[in-house]
Design brief:
This protein is about 35% helix and about 15% strand. The chain has helices at about 1-20, 40-55, 85-95, 100-105, 105-110, 145-155, 175-185, 220-230, 245-250, 265-270, 280, 285-305, 320-330, 345-350, 365-375, and strands at about 30-35, 60-65, 65-70, 75-80, 95-100, 115-120, 160-165, 190-195, 235-240, 310-315, 335, 355-360, 380. It has a six-stranded parallel beta sheet.
Length: about 400
């Protein structure tokens, strides 16, 4: 560890001599992690929590790429954070650097190959054990997909493992941050590299406001505005997110055994103070979806008769229900649209700009849109929430 400290100090001096101020080393250290749980929505939740954790420890936050999965591909693909979002917005909240820049300009100076340690709460079992192999307990941080492909993207191998139990990540309600700083001081541990995100899922209540620092880059923002201006008819529009793929239908089966599921606290409250789970909150019928859209249209048109709803934009993981929605909304002279090609990030950006958003309470994808709109003060609601116990059989569909 003394060798690392010497290297750390020498590197800091050399950087200043060479005038490379953009990459001056942070004596408080760095925090790195693999966003290896779930797809975009889950990763976005973890991003906010990990950012908060890095700030509490006063370590530079190394912004990971997004882990994406292409159909038919055997390995995940790592997409740089700034492909979709502004790095400088994150930096408004806390010191941060992208994973690429960290590995290119800093890692070699303070985190030498052959001396890299992966952090995990407890032992992660090795996926494949060869006959006669002596298994040493460790994090096995590169076992499986996306773990292996993620670290391989940056040519990172780990020599050791560090189990950090019983420490945890709830820096808001405990003094755990000070315990982390005491146990893992930056002069001995310049880089904390976690096998998974150092954050809770779903995102903690205290971290919701950090969404304001996750801002679309100019390219994404302009694409969304261009679509709204040039594809959707002139006038107000409602954005909706439908989850109805086979994997989602199976996930909804867990409703009966759970108080919360995925991102359900966004409508039920973190302590179920706003209600309990029920199946329609997770998976809705066509009739329920159409009925709720019509209710929102009528309410919005009544409140703002000079800017009435002219269209509905649909984002979905599977069935966009375009024929059903188009037929049901035809008498109201409302058209229904979706992107011609699959582009979930553009879906998100467009939904964030809608005049009203209706999402799925359980979905972390919907949760991203809801958080963004809350920050901007835009209205949102959820399908089947609150639970409708007063509907009459004669209500027109």
């Amino acid at each position: 560890m003394k060798v690392l400290l010497i290297l750390f100090c020498i590197s800091s001096i050399l950087l200043k001599i060479n005038g490379e101020e953009d990459y001056e080393l942070d004596p408080a250290g760095y925090l790195v992690y693999c966003p290896c749980m779930g797809r975009f929505g889950n990763q976005a939740d973890h991003l906010l929590g990990s950012l908060s954790f890095a700030k509490e420890l006063n370590r530079t936050f190394v912004i990971p790429p997004w882990v994406e999965y292409e159909k038919g591909a055997l390995k995940s693909k790592q997409v740089p954070y700034d492909t979709y979002f502004k790095v400088e917005s994150i930096q408004e909240y806390h010191k941060a650097i992208t994973m690429h820049d960290f590995m290119e300009n800093i890692a070699g100076k303070i985190w030498p190959e052959g001396q890299r340690t992966s952090f995990c709460y407890m032992e992660r079992k090795k996926l494949k054990v060869e006959p006669g192999e002596v298994v040493v307990p460790g994090c096995n941080a590169k076992d499986g997909n996306p773990f292996g492909p993620f670290w391989d993207t940056y040519n990172i191998d780990f020599k050791k493992s560090e189990f950090y139990a019983p420490l945890h990540f709830d820096v808001h309600n405990t003094i755990i941050g000070k315990k982390w700083q005491s146990k893992y001081q930056p002069h001995e541990w310049p880089v904390l590299a976690f096998a998974g995100a150092p954050a809770h899922f779903p995102v903690q209540l205290e971290n919701l406001e950090l969404q304001k620092y996750v801002q679309w880059n100019d390219e994404m923002a302009n694409k969304a505005k261009h679509y709204i201006k040039n594809v959707l008819p002139k006038g107000a529009f409602i954005g909706i997110h439908l989850r109805n793929g086979l994997d989602w239908v199976k996930a909804c089966e867990h409703i009966k055994d759970s108080k919360q599921l995925f991102s359900s606290p966004q409508c039920l409250g973190y302590n179920n103070e706003k209600g309990l789970l029920f199946r329609e909150l997770c998976f809705q019928t066509r009739e329920l979806i159409i009925r709720q859209i019509k209710r929102v249209v009528k309410k919005m048109n009544s409140n703002n008769p000079r800017n009435t709803i002219k269209s509905v934009f649909v984002a979905s993981d599977s069935n966009h229900l375009l024929p059903d929605l188009s037929q049901s909304l035809e008498r109201m002279k409302i058209t229904v649209h979706k992107l011609e090609e699959n582009n979930p990030h553009l879906d998100l950006a467009i939904l964030g700009l809608s005049n009203h958003f209706i999402g799925n309470c359980i979905s972390s994808f919907s949760a991203f849109v809801k958080r963004e709109r809350d920050i901007r003060g835009f209205p949102s609601s959820f399908f089947a929430y609150p639970k409708d116990t007063s509907r009459t059989k004669h209500e027109e569909l």
